[in-house]
Amino acid sequence: MIGTTRQAAAPARAAERARLALGRYRLVRHALGAAAALVALYALTSAVSPYRDLQIAQAAYLTCAVAGLTVLTGLGGQISLGHGAFMAVGAYTTALLLNHRSWPLAAVLAAAVVVTAAAGTAVGAVAARLHGPYLAGATLAFAVGLPGLANYEPLLDLLGGQNGLSVTPPVPPAALGETFPVERWQAWIACLGAVLTLFLLANLVRGRFGRTLRATRDDEIAAALHGVRVARVRIIATVVSAACAGLAGGLLAVATTLAAPGAFPLALSLQLIAAIIIGGLGSLAGAVWGALVLVFVPAWASDLAQSADLSHNIASNLPLALYGLVLIVVTLVFPRGIQGGLRAARTALARRRSPRDDAAHEEAAPHDTAARDTAVHGGDS
Amino acid sequence: MKRPRLARATAALTALALAASATAACGSGDGGGGDRASAPGVTATTVTIGSHQPLTGPAAPGYSANSAASKAFFDYVNANGGIHGRKIVYKYVDDVYNPTQTVGVVQKLVLQDKVFAIFNGLGTPTHSKVVGYLNAQRVPDLFVASGCGCWDQPDKHPYTFGWQVDYVREGKILGEHVRRAFPGKKIAYFYQNDDFGQDGVKGLDKYIPASQVVTRQSYQPGGTDVSAQVQAIAQSKADVVVLFTIPTYTALFRLAALKLGYSPQLVVSNVGSDPVTLTGLLESYAKRGGTKVKGSPLIQGIITDAYLSAPGSDDSWIRLFRKIHQQYIPQLPFNGNIIYGMSVAYTFVQALQAAGPNPTRKSLIEALEKSQFRGPGLVPFAYSKQSHAGYIGAQIGVIKGDTVVLQGQPLTTDAGDGPIRPYTGGQPEAPANGIPPQG
Amino acid sequence: MVRFVNLTLAGITSGMVFATVALALVLIWRSTRIVNFAQGGMLMVTTFLAWTVVDAGGSYWVALAAALASGLVLGAVIERVVIRPVEDKPPLNAVIVTLGLFVLLQAGAGMVWGDTPHSYPPAFGIRGLSVGGTRLLLSPNDLFVIGAVGAVMIALTVLFVRTDLGLRLRAAAFAPEIARLLGVRVGRMLTLGWALAALVGSLAGVLIAPSVFVGPTQFDAVLVFGFTAAVIGGLDSPVGAVVGGLLLGCALSYVSGYLSSDLVTLGALAALIAVLLVRPNGLFGATTGRRV
């Protein structure tokens, strides 16, 4: 990929100008997309009940984390089973700042992003050397180990031990009126964070960095031969992805008003990785789908279990069973995730409409290669 | 050329918008019930209450039976005419002991299901994250299933009430007993490193002289191996070990001690000493072949405390609870958790009765603050305008066979530095039909 | 000194427990290149089956046989039904399927057997052996566990290195296309690999059960530490799994004994990172050069 770009750039200046124009065009398009998303979310959050607003806030903060992870794993080929721990860093930073400093919320969330990005640098430096299951194991140990810090004696007073920290819910601005539901305000904050994350990531992955990142995923050696500093690219990807998870954690602390070790179990990290696969590996739209699945499938399963008249043991475990089934079935039926399934459906539709136009609609699906060398596959032998 | 990613993300969001608006539109029915609908969750024929419980995940073992037992008791009351003609609908939802899920579950119960009250929400790390919300929404938050002293703050949390004896009171009562019964002996602590264990130790330390305590070891629930801690305790040659542990860790401690040939006198808090659960956990070490033993030999003589009747005792409450258990949930083992779940449900029924024929959230709280409820407990509640704490004490007992044999008198105290006093009021008999008498 | 000896012995015993799980993971990795998160669920279910046998009055050895047999069948069925369709798909898909399976098995066990943990009998006595009047943290049953794990490790090494079947298993995993051309029935080998791994896993479950009890979530921590041990040892090597397990077990025991029991999970992280920084493919993993 890098090679073709370089060869095409024969008259360098013209190409540079074209790229700038393209870049600007893309930026405008993404900005329009973001604005449209914000309008849609405004309409949505205003139309639904406060409880739905809370669910939307959950889906929004999970979107941040899943989108960040899909950049690292989907485009960078580096698996992480430890993103729940990054969320914990963001959530604790937010909770501590909100409780001890009277900073504006935006500054607090920015601080959460910075602190988590710093943690991401450390993790990235170690992770850049690792592959496949070794990376999976290291990040898994990170996810399991880090929340334990909250119980460490000298930090007990600061981090609140097993009980964690409570945060006062954010107060909606007076201009919105006395009766403005706080859940909707929380949803707005979380949605704004999610749209901003998606906007920044969309520009990042469509730009030069995205291409380089994909190159390191597809063929590490070839990329290195083309002058890409693979370790550095990977560390940057980890930092970006950690920053997103940090924001997600910060938004979690705002939306659910807490930070506690029990909120960041290993299951959370595993759910995030499941979400990127179910949504569609490497696709930001897929990240949204994945986050929606994480929020709405368990809620639906729990309603279903309650509505039926079942014995205690069965009713208790039914939502969990349905969730496991959904993971298996979706992965088997849509190997490229929901977004991949939708894309295939659209392609099939377009093909039926104009059979000759095949080539025009053929997607340059990077996902096949994305997948082949990704993560838990060791591959080298 | 691909459509920009963000545009696709927007499309996905819009799809969600439509789907959610659709569900919102059809889910707005309140189920109004005429003028008998005196409060949210109350209709002419039903009162709906909700709870968050760990039904799956690491905290589920043992605790998941509580809510089933409460529900069985409510079903029994409903089958016998209900309260003021209303049936109690009890919705308990799994939160996997994860505070983020607790927040979601409780908001759903309050906002969507419009429950009258939250009942017996389980766990300190979980419930402490919704106390503020419930009080801001003025939803009665009754009988939290945790012995944290933090539920008793009527000024800050006027809608929240504790129920079980708190861990500090319990620690004080156990501590006083240890000081009296084992003067000059070496004592060790083994406790769960969260508010349960830490508060318990606070109570113990009020009575056991620091010079007598030779070592303090703790564990994190979820890990498995406690041999390092048990070995440290064995090496300290403590004569008495006080455990603030959950049953699996009481059993793990016992097994590791067995391995080391170390047999101190064990003093175990109420939560970790249920003889039925412990016998189940230690069963394999007490028998060969298929013979069931009645009470593991490994737990005989353990000193503990109780504020309810033990599963093996033969009194009117246990007979009542066994009858309901047989009828509604025979597949679950009849242990301390079942007694707990039914007893707390009994107290709720008392509160609902006292709230009057047209209960409101306010009348429920006022009724509780004025109440003098007696029930399955060995000691009374603290409920008043000044205190929202639950049972104010416990009685020392010793495990014999598969039950706890109570000793001496029930003891009461406060969660501060107040004295320990004997309680002579006695435990009332269970009502013949199992439903608390009116008034 | 007694404390150090006992902490080491406790570390070895729990390390052997991690090693059994690690062995099962290594086996699946070697035969299908998948990290099997469902392993914890699979061994939990087979151990529950064994417990059912014990509860009905069956002997320890009958129960063990039941666990092993059910493990063999469960592994083969799972490979055929849910793993086969994702074997030619991106490997992360297989990981998600095994995760889904893990959740499903846990929920299923909760439905059938409930949440209450049960006691599981040890094969031999659990009273520690006495040396010079000091009771050690080492019981006859621990010796049995150590022996059983050692035997499995040797058997697996022999299988992979010395036998024709082992060669075909490896070929099917590492280079399925070439293996197919050479007449290896790849599909059958993959099924066999899963069945064998599940067999080892079910043994692990029965060996662990006396010290962690049997319940839907009782094996979670062991699975995490087993995976960590496998990674420390290098996922390709049965010997590595055992060494990794022992190292991790001792490290955790020392952290718990000398520092604080609250730091155990962080200790596991530190041990893992320390090893991976020096050897990114684990202690016994092949250092792979990559051809361009």
Tell me what the structure shows:
The complex is a heterotrimer of chains A (381), B (439) and C (292). Chain A is mainly alpha-helical and 381 residues long. Chain A is 75% helix and 1% strand. Chain A has a single domain (2-6, 16-372), classed as ABC transporter involved in vitamin B12 uptake, BtuC. Chain A has a two-stranded antiparallel ribbon with strand order 1-2. In chain A, helix 3 (50-75) crosses helix 13 and helix 4 packs parallel to helix 6 (132-145). The model of chain A is unreliable at 1-9 and 357-381 (pLDDT under 50). Chain B has 2 domains: 38-165 and 313-391, Response regulator (Rossmann fold, 3-Layer(aba) Sandwich), CATH 3.40.50.2300; 168-306, Rossmann fold (3-Layer(aba) Sandwich), CATH 3.40.50.2300. Helices cover 37% and strands 15% of the residues of chain B. In chain B, the strands form 3 sheets. Chain B has a 5-stranded parallel β-sheet, sandwiched between helices. In chain B, helix 2 packs across helix 11 and helix 9 packs across helix 10 (275-282). With 292 residues, chain C is mainly α. Chain C has a single domain, classed as ABC transporter involved in vitamin B12 uptake, BtuC. Chain C has helices at residues 2-32, 39-55, 60-83, 91-113, 140-162, 164-174, 176-181, 186-212, 220-233, 238-259, 264-278; strands at residues 130-131, 134-135. Chain C has a two-stranded antiparallel ribbon with strand order 1-2. The longest helix of chain C is centred in the first third of the chain and has 31 residues, at 2-32. The mean pLDDT of chain C is 88. Chains in contact: A-B, A-C, B-C. The interface between A and B is large, with 67 and 57 residues.
Briefly characterize the structure:
Chain B has 13 helices and 14 strands. Chain B is an alpha/beta fold and 439 residues long. Chain C has a two-stranded antiparallel sheet with strand order 1-2.
Structure keywords:
heterotrimer, A: 381 residues, mainly alpha, ABC transporter involved in vitamin B12 uptake, BtuC, 17 helices, 1% strand, globular, C: 292 residues, two-stranded antiparallel sheet, 2 strands, 73% helix
- Poorly predicted runs of chain C: none
Mean pLDDT level of chain A: 85
- Secondary-structure element sequence of chain C? HHHHEEHHHHHHH
Q: Which protein chains are joined by the largest interface, and how many residues does each one contribute?
A: A-B, 67 and 57 residues
Overall strand count of chain C: 2
What shape does the CA trace of chain C take?
Answer: globular
DSSP E strands of chain A, number: 2
Strand count, sense and barrel status of the largest sheet of chain C are: 2 strands, antiparallel
Low-confidence stretches of chain A: 1-9, 357-381
- Could you please say which CATH topology of chain A applies here? ABC transporter involved in vitamin B12 uptake, BtuC
Rounded to an integer in angstroms, the radius of gyration calculated over CA atoms of chain A is 22 Å
Under CATH, the topology of chain C can be stated as ABC transporter involved in vitamin B12 uptake, BtuC
- How many individual helices of chain C? 11
**Main β-sheet, spatial strand arrangement of chain A:** 1-2
* Helix share, percent of chain A: over 70%
What's the helix count of chain A? 17
H and E order of chain A: HHHHHHHEHHHHEHHHHHH
Shape of chain A: globular
Average pLDDT confidence of chain C is 88
Organism (chain A): Actinomadura rubrobrunea
Subcellular location (chain A): Cell membrane
GO cellular component, one term (chain A): plasma membrane
Region (Disordered) (chain A): 353-381
